[in-house]
Amino acid sequence: MCCCNSCTNKWMCCCGCHVTSGSLVIAWLYLVSSLLTLPSAFSALVSQYHLVAFNLIHLTLTLLFCLSAIPIIVGEMCTQRTHHMYLPFLIINPVALIVALFAAIFAPSANIMSRVPNHRQHDAAAVFVATSMLFVLILSLNIWMYSIVYRAYQFVKRYGQEE
Fold first, then answer.
1. Longest Cα pair distance anywhere in the chain, in angstroms?
2. 3-state secondary structure (DSSP) of residue 6
């Protein structure tokens, strides 16, 4: 069922809801997951683990993801929808994902492998492969969610408050 005169399949998520509703769900997912990740990111930084720069990047990205979701949630809950409320997410998310990608690529995997005894390097390599596959899956989900928020931005910019 179409919710407005201008509604086409372009404005629907794969679950059948409107992209503005989908972007609200995505914003809540980002906020909750960021808030749940924040304590571990902060404690890793405070613990002076040997990868301090990586932990600082993790904490910064967590805070950025959290802050980029808030304008979408506030705009939708206050029914003051403007296309500007999507901009923090649309700007911060790709930058944060690129930083995360470079951090994952340049994470000292050689350093990790050199600290593992020879008889355990096979296990460390398996963990590295599994972690890499998980990262690719999460990256794919983030790109898909970004496309939903971008379509919500386009919809609100084009049609304003109507839904």
1. 65
2. coil
- Tens of pLDDT, residues 53-92: 777 777 888 888 889 999 999 998 888 888 899 999 999 9
- The amino acid sitting at 17 is C
Instruction: Annotate 32-56 with three-state secondary structure.
Output: HHHHHHHHHHHHHHHCCCCCHHHHH
Specify the pTM.
0.77
Q: What is the token pair recorded at 107? A: 């994470």
Report the alpha-carbon distance of residue 42 to residue 34 in Å, rounded.
12
81 torsion bin: left (phi>0), alpha (psi -120 to 50), beta (else): beta
Q: Strand, helix or coil at 86?
A: helix
Neighbours of 82 (CB within 10 A): 14
The answer to whether the beta carbons of residues 115 and 48 sit under 8 Å apart is no
H/E segment holding residue 146 = helix 121-159
